[in-house]
Amino acid sequence: MVSRVIPVDAFDLVIFGSTGDLARRKILPGLFRRFQSGQMPDSARVIGAARGDLTDESFRALAATAIAEFVPKARQDDAVIGQFLEKLSYVTIDASGEGGWPALKARMRDGVVRAFYFSVAPALFGDLAERLHLHGIADSASRIVVEKPFGRDLQSARALNSVLAKHFTEAQIYRIDHYLGKETVQNLMAVRFANILFEPLWKSEYIDHVQITVAETVGVQGRGAYYDKSGAMRDMVQNHMMQLLCLIAMEPPYHFDPNAVRDEKLKVIRALQPVGPQDIVRGQYLKAGGEGGYLDHSGNPASRTESYIALKVQVANWRWQGTPFYLRTGKRLRARASEIAITFKEPPHSIFDDAQGWRENVLVIRLQPDEGMNLMVMIKEPGPGGMRLMQVPLDMSFAEALGDEAEDVPDAYERLIMDVIRGNQTLFMRGDEVEAAWAWTDPIIAAWENRGDRPQGYDPGSSGPEDALMLMHKDGRRWREIKG
Ligand code: NAP
Prior knowledge:
- By secondary structure, the protein is of the alpha/beta class.
- It has helices at about 20-35, 55-70, 80-85, 100-105, 125-135, 155-165, 185-195, 225-230, 230-250, 260-270, 295-300, 400, 410-420, 430-450, 465-475; strands at about 10-15, 45-50, 90, 115-120, 145, 175, 205-215, 280-285, 310-315, 325-330, 335-345, 360-370, 370-380, 390-395, 455-460.
- NADP nicotinamide-adenine-dinucleotide phosphate (NAP) binds near residues 16, 94, 95 and 120.
């Protein structure tokens, strides 16, 4: 299979926060990979900006180190790295100060796409937007890219939206949720809307329930103080998991067009029912084997912040009446695994009995570690042993389908940055979506805070708190095993 790489238009991309963790781990290596694939045109320029007193040369050295560390060794070619580094330059700028802006303006070229990546703390978004405007650096065709967290509640998200809206229209704002840039997540839309097979069954009449799992093995060490103000609900559910849920639950958009897709996602968020305490389990990982627990890592011995959450969510519309969505995410769990599993109902009348080994059809969409899809179907067990059934996966693993090219599948950040340059907002969250997601999340958080609920402890390396098992058991269902 030969994948097509279509170069994007010439651009000037300014990365504010270009010396930070995100720039080093994702943005710079991602840009390099797109350059290497031929997608980034020769005329593209990347301008780093931060307060640090770097020269063009020292910024290139920082980028070279980032590429050496975060690009697979087999993909590191010194000649190509050298050509890429020539596209990089650096300007010292304090987002909230006045120095450096004229120098940045002087570097910008006319007649190319101008994009500004705000890879800095959200408290600086307003300052950056203001100064880009004041100094005449951003024009009405420029694009800005903003990172999560987009607020910590509805009020702060609205404030951020209005700060950006002072100088940029919604069509210029690209709010990143890197889950939407994952190959399988987009494939979910292709599978749903480019095939006749699934959509007729895609409703409560045929789907028993949906499970969405995002499990991590790491704890919050290193970012404990930040995380303690956030927790799993704000850090994962309000954004990434909500986006996944939307893509499964949304109606077919009239076209694969940014606003058509985002309109349908918004309707899903608005249809989410409030979640009561009986349908939520929150957890905190405990100490184990000489390693600190959440309370040690967060630095707050009285913390009530959850490092794990499981919820049963209902989408109140005709399509999903009676089909629950079970969401769970947590840190220090058994394995690093993210997946969506759609479990179908039993056939209306079975001609086989239980002893013959019937099991449900399940469509599993795996986001990590190995992206791909599996459809679990029943077949006859081969051999002369009579009619015994067995479940087998129809495997749609990317690694196998793409062979050597699987390595070239762009990482979520690479794809999303190229979409910014192309001016395609389909995989970015719109302001009203983010606000609607907070409007659903806020009362749930307020309720547990008002009750003073404490999260339940769970053992590191387990699949989460005991009560989370009950959340499904009481409905006669089971969580899928968390497997890496
Ligand atoms: P970081 O490692 O703390 O880096 C922050 C960057 O911003 C540095 O380059 C810093 O350089 C620059 N900076 C700080 N204050 C500045 C100012 N006043 N003016 C100009 N530049 C300034 O942070 P990060 O982890 O890269 O995160 C950046 C953003 O991405 C944050 O909003 C974060 O929430 C979000 N994010 C990060 C990740 C991740 O994996 N790291 C994931 C998702 C979202 P100087 O100090 O030299 O100015």
